[in-house]
Amino acid sequence: MSELNAPAGAPFFHYDGAQLMAESVSVSELAARFGTPLYVYSRAALKAAWESYAQPLTNRNALVCFGMKANSNLAVLQQFAQWGSGFDIVSGGELARALKAGARPDTIVFSGVGKQDWEIEAALQAGVKCFNVESTDELERISLIASQLGCTAPVSLRVNPDVDAKTHPYISTGLKDNKFGIAIEIAAEVYQRAAVLPGIRIVGVDCHIGSQITQIEPYLDALERLLNLLDTLAGLGIRLEHLDIGGGLGIRYQDETPIAPALLLDAVFAMLESRGYDYLQLVLEPGRSLVGNAGILVTRVQYLKHHESKNFAIVDAAMNDLLRPTLYDAWHGVLPVLCPTDASHTAQSRVYDIVGPICESGDWLARDRQLRLQQNDLLAIESAGAYGFVMSGQYNTRPRCAEVMVDGDQTYLIRPRETVEQLFASEQMLPV
Ligand SMILES: Cc1ncc(COP(=O)(O)O)c(C=O)c1O
Ligand SMILES: N[C@@H](CCCC[NH3+])C(=O)O
């Protein structure tokens, strides 16, 4: 029962005895001021997560490239850029966002299996650090475009090491049956091709084996395979400047024990040193672990419904606001905003499914939660800072909700709620 545990985002989200606080700001005041559903991020939580990587990397030749697909609000990106983060992007849209937020182009790595011509051109023109190339077709296309533009594309091959990250099948990316990367068996061959292609400069090697990983072994397995590849490349006279181990570190949603970045980094540096590759710059692409527990989704109970075998709390957030539960069967903690021990909270404790207003039975945010609820209560869905708002949509013509950032006792509206009119403002009807 999440309500009895410390919030997943503690100490930044915490009870002050009476109610849930985001840093020094009352969550119910935020709900009153900005309406619900509402994403609330804590700047201090973002900073603490950033430091969990930055500290162990002090005086190391390393670059953290925030996997911005996890949360691409400009204010969030701006913080990471100010703290010295690079960015892992997967589209021309993400490139534009990162640049707008103040990213240095030479700290941007461009991943993704389906880069289009305009995206490759834009990245070349911006001067990104490298393309993480995911196929031979893509390599040839980048070579062609760079040659046409009269420039050279820095390239790192994203190798698929065929390692089981032991995570949800939808977010596992390093198995040979996954669409990602270049099979490790043919990687040396592709490097040789890259070495002779015009417009290509080989700079690195990359892998990303999956997301919400809670075991260190898959990383070390993948790294070992990559280092064996580097041995082969050295024999072919191909030398690299950096090695990118991707992102993927998990967070606590329920009872997981996440790997501390320092632990992974120690093990990685030890292996690089023992194999004589510590001259390489280490690149990382963490997403979820930098933002996941820095955000909550605040929602208000609309109605309670008691069926014979189920109790439903119908809230104003839905699968269009937070897709993870229904897409991955993902567990997110649910916290009452009013402290569960508060005496004014007299409702009977029952087991509820927390569901949204969308016309789909799959529209649920949490199942089988023991809660004392009454109409208009506020709830906080925990661990919503990663893959939350970014995966939201407008299904059922629902405006996407607002996002705010709390910093101490200050609150910044970093994205206003969409209006209903905005939802169809650019649509065109046929002539009558
Ligand atoms: C290439 C790449 N890099 C980085 C990430 C960030 O992953 P995570 O949010 O699990 O750290 C992802 C997403 O899984 C990815 O596909
Ligand atoms: N969207 C996924 C993570 C995808 C990682 C992207 N490669 C999640 O919410 O857990």
The CATH architecture category of the largest domain equals Beta Barrel
Largest sheet: 9 strands, mixed
Number of structural units classed as domains: 2
Instruction: Tell me the helix content.
Output: 25-40%
Number of helices: 12
In terms of quaternary structure, the protein is: single chain
How many β-strands, per DSSP? 21
- The Rg value, from CA coordinates, equals 23 Å
Query: Residue ranges: pLDDT <50 for 5 or more in a row?
Result: none
Mean pLDDT: 96
Catalytic activity: meso-2,6-diaminopimelate + H(+) = L-lysine + CO2
Binding site for pyridoxal 5'-phosphate: 248, 285-288, 387
Organism: Advenella mimigardefordensis (strain DSM 17166 / LMG 22922 / DPN7)
Subunit structure: Homodimer.
